[in-house]
Design brief:
about 325 residues; mainly alpha; two-stranded antiparallel sheet; 14 helices; about 45% helix; elongated; Defense against restriction protein
Length: about 325
């Protein structure tokens, strides 16, 4: 232990103290075993007895015995052998029967990593880190108390999840967190039938043959850029190219809409024109938010927004920790 301290330094001081994440369990145990002054804790030097036989707990209570054994320091699940040693009441001889018994006991959660933990601990923490292991574990379980226990954990986590009320979600036409073919559908129904949403431009003769793209990172085309006919001055040959278009739709609001959809700022020949385009865009945004609430994919998009918000929150938290 002292060699590790000499090698890595005091884990409670400096940048390494900020280390966190789902893979840091062993690190937390190491850090918790070191005092802030860099010396090894009394628990490891033998000066401290971790579980006093005279400690006040009901050794005939499943929940109390688990609370006595469980450490918030390491957060390691309590194995059945250790539970048997600390529990003084009658227990089934079979580990399978014991696990089923404990899984049916309120306040106790079966861990995906083996053993048991307090239910409150099993259902707390970063949703992105604690849900996936439980879902994978659930897929391996037959019907019975253990499966029901894991299902109850997932239900409790879902209840704790902070959700944005659907009426507070603002869908923007230039957002990229959902399948933007929904935006295309709205625009084609509301006066912009020439717009297309593609992953890449593919031409065959004078036609663009790209399929409609379903995703968040595609490209809107059709007004500013499209298939343009060119004539070779020397040979007179007609050819078709993908290039900037001309005409009212290529320079007016439809062109600014296409720019906006693809992440560019709305502009204009002067500030008055640009402001007019922005006001027109704001009206279109409001119209889209009313339209989307009637779409058959609305519930799906609301659920996706919740997951997107959780991911953003997680990244912000990580940035603060590393900052």
């Amino acid at each position: 232990m002292q060699a590790e301290i000499d090698r890595f330094g005091n884990p409670g001081r400096g940048p390494i103290a900020k280390l966190s994440g789902s893979g840091a369990r062993a690190w937390f145990a190491f850090r918790g075993a070191i005092k802030l002054d860099g010396t090894i804790s009394d628990e490891l030097t033998g000066k401290l007895v971790t579980h006093d036989s005279s400690a006040s707990y009901d050794s005939t209570s499943y929940q109390d015995t688990l609370r006595y054994l469980y450490s918030d320091l390491t957060r390691d699940p309590i194995q059945l052998d250790d539970f048997r040693l600390a529990f003084t009441g009658e227990l089934p001889a079979s580990d399978e029967e014991l696990l089923n018994l404990l899984a049916s006991t309120p306040g106790i959660a079966v861990s995906p990593y083996g053993g048991i933990v307090p239910f409150a601990r099993a259902t707390s923490g970063d949703i992105n880190e604690i849900v996936a292991p439980k879902q994978e574990f659930l897929a391996t379980l037959p019907d019975g108390p253990v499966k029901n226990n894991v299902l109850n954990q997932l239900a409790a986590i879902e209840e704790k999840r902070i959700k944005t009320p659907a009426e507070n979600i603002r869908f923007k036409l230039n957002s990229r967190w959902f399948d933007r073919s929904v935006i295309l559908e709205f625009l084609q129904e509301n006066g912009y039938p020439d717009l297309r949403y593609v992953q890449s431009v593919q031409l065959e003769g004078d036609e663009m043959v790209s399929d409609t793209y379903h995703g968040g990172d595609g490209l809107f085309v059709g007004h500013r850029y499209g298939v343009v006919q060119r004539k070779d001055k020397e040979t007179g040959e007609i050819r078709y190219e993908w290039d900037r278009k001309s005409g009212e739709n290529a320079t007016g609001f439809p062109a600014q809409l296409e720019k906006y959809l693809n992440g560019a700022r709305i502009g204009g020949k002067d500030s008055a024109t640009a402001n007019g385009y922005r006001e027109q865009m704001a009206l279109l945004e409001d119209q889209f938010n009313k339209w989307i609430k009637t779409h058959d994919r609305y519930d799906e998009l609301v659920a996706k927004y919740t997951m997107f918000s959780i991911a953003i929150s997680r990244m912000n938290t990580l940035a603060i920790r590393l900052g």
